[in-house]
Amino acid sequence: ASIPSGTLASERSCGPRKRRGRLGRGGGEPQALASRLPRGPHDREDAKRSQRGASDLAKQENKITERNLNMEATGTDEVDKLKTKFISAWNNMKYNENELLPVSSGCTIEDHVIAGSVEEFRKDFISRIWLTYREEFPPIEGSALTTDCGWGCTLRTGQMLLAQGLVLHFLGRAWTWPDALNIENSDSESWTSNTVKKFTASFEASLSAERELKTPTISLKETIGRYSDDREMQNEIYHRKIISWFGDSPLALFGLHQLIEYGKKSGKKAGDWYGPAVVAHILRKAVEEARHPDLQGITIYVAQDCTVYSSDVIDKQCTSMASDNTDDKAVIILVPVRLGGERTNADYLDFVKGILSLEYCVGIVGGKPKQSYYFAGFQDDSLIYMDPHYCQSFVDVSIKDFPLETFHCPSPKKMSFRKMDPSCTIGFYCRNVQDFKRASEEITKVLLF
């Protein structure tokens, strides 16, 4: 959806114009007549005054022309802003069309089978880090883009998979966000109304050159103040640290700006479509290049031709950054696969459900054609997912007390397996070599099922 070119542009007449003579401007009938008249002393004074008047008039016309050009340029900027807001609103309304999950029994996320507790399921789901389209972030290098609406969804789902791996690595499988249930659950109607309100308010703010500042409802000080021990406080610090690594700024280790930079070696640039396999290699490069001390104990292995070579994985895990460090590295294994030809083969349903049931699985980067989702679990023959196609405003994660709410999804969604695009990337997390060996055994059982 787009606004037709020139809809809001200023109209211009294309017909012939009649020339109007002006004193001191040349080419008009009055000037030609004046040049033939005899000039006495008074005539010369009148002529000088006329020339000064013509000069002043020319200056005024130049100022008016310059002002009109500036207004026209500003109008173009406003059209661009309107287009951006319209695209954001359009993506958000498309986001609302996806089916909301009626939370009930039989939901599975990793190895957690939710037998009947709706609250348990919501807390587990909302605790996952949700990374969506953003707007108004710093321009991506080499482009003027300040939003990834319409093209960045696979990068976002890849970020979500990596974020889940980091949550398992630093916080453990039992961790849940203490404030998960404080986020208001939203149905489709409220999402839509919020989208319309946001579009209207955002456009009005852009016209008045103002920017709405949101006050976080859950502050770091308030949250840490509720913790009963140092462990919980440490978890909250890592929770925020992980999210900050995915911030939309050039300095964020796994932010959109950095991922696009690494994607250039694959022939990709900002605004391009990224497939699940390409994103897998971009994530591997991003983790390899990360120089943060906390990230030296984790690596990424990307399978080639759907094959995981155990010796290569173990070699990666046993490679130490320092000679005195003998601990195994944790590894996130990414396996790009294709589950059929043009459409996903229905025979793979049990395989996908089996993979998502494993405690080692950190999700699947997949989706529908040209729409990437992060699959986190399943219910019956439907896949439970997090949707990145919701455009939110830029959040400065460098601020100590940045708001967390927009990084956690309040409403799970589901999609029929038969709608799944066959191209996807499956992720696994193994804390050490022994963990990898156990995971290999469990994955083999699923493959032989």
TrEMBL record:
Residues 119-440 form the Peptidase C54 catalytic domain. Signal peptide: none annotated. Transmembrane segments: none annotated. Coiled coil: none annotated. One of its GO terms (biological process) is protein transport. It catalyses: [protein]-C-terminal L-amino acid-glycyl-phosphatidylethanolamide + H2O = [protein]-C-terminal L-amino acid-glycine + a 1,2-diacyl-sn-glycero-3-phosphoethanolamine. It is an enzyme of class 3 (hydrolase). It comes from the Eukaryota. One of its GO terms (cellular component) is cytoplasm. InterPro entries: Papain-like_cys_pep_sf, Peptidase_C54, Peptidase_C54_cat. It is found in: Cytoplasm. Cysteine protease that plays a key role in autophagy by mediating both proteolytic activation and delipidation of ATG8 family proteins. Belongs to the peptidase C54 family. This is Cysteine protease. It comes from Monodon monoceros (Narwhal).
